[in-house]
Write a structure and sequence with these properties.
The protein has 360 residues and is mostly helical. It has one domain. The chain has a two-stranded antiparallel ribbon with strand order 1-2. Strand 1 and strand 2 form a beta hairpin. Helix 3 packs antiparallel against helix 11, helix 5 runs antiparallel to helix 11 and helix 8 runs antiparallel to helix 11. The longest helix is centred in the last third of the chain and has 27 residues. The mean pLDDT is 84.
Amino acid sequence: MTTPIASARRDERARRWRRPTLWLRLGVLALFVLVPVAVPSFQATDLAIKIALFGALVASYDVVIGYTGIVSFGHAMFFGFGAYSVALAVGRFGAPTYGHLLLGFGIAVLLSALVATLIGAFSLRVKLIFFAMITLAFAEFAGILAVQWSALSGGEDGLSPKMPGLFAVGWEGGRVLGVPLTGKLVTYYVVLAACAALFLVMARFVASPLGRALQAIRDNELRAEALGVPTFTLQIVSSSFASVVATIVGGCYVMWVRYVNPESALGVPLMLDVLLMVIIGGIGTLWGSVIGAAVLLTARLLLPDLRGLGTLLGGSEIAQRLTERWLLVFGVLFVLVVFFFPKGVLGTTRDALARRRRPA
């Protein structure tokens, strides 16, 4: 005899393939896949893969802040752990090999899981802004350590590792669909596949019973604890899981850019970028992270080119000054996004669609 729960789950699986959001996500993934073929420009390819990378990083932070309710200012530190671990593994153990690459990822994952668990065990009982300040202190310490320990990390000059085998810059393997098959192109698709897999894992994580328990903790921690939910343990699990995801993204980032320094992987500006992206996309939406990353990274790529528009606007002095101060334009755009999309682009859109479906 079929139970009501089993029947509901069967109906849910049947409706899954009819949801327009599923096909929208598949369409976005197909767009990322086709970018190197349709637009054979390194600038476009670089923008696309960085949107995928930072989208995954922001989604991992959204697991912490949006689905668990933990405000952390040190999440980017784990991104740096992955970046430095992979760079050191392929650059300091002799000639780069696939084994060194996997070793770098393995060490980074273990280190991040350990550090995130220890930070959570000692700091998660401190609530709200106090916990955020503690995580910021740890992140600052990691950045200072990377600068001062120059014998290992390269200091402010950073590291420029070489990738092994198919990922090497000089590797070429003919042409596929008219596109030259190079080490950079192989790296693009491997990193894209890794980001897509991480998104699937995170989506499954937040939709699982564990994810629903985390959302209950976010909404009302005292009530969840009264119902018997082990809030402290689950918060550590969520923080550690998100940290490991950020670490893997950091390793993939080094595979693509082939360079890491304290400012690009451990600096406070990186954490601020993550915060901006999650706010633009929508806190607690997960997939909104791709929107936030796309808006911020595209704006940073295109807005500096406004400097050349001053001459096209008749040489006006006011127009020239405005185009030179592109950061001001970016600030205005961010304010407008927050004003018109108070819950982020995806969050506000979801609320608007829900109101339209609601019967009068």
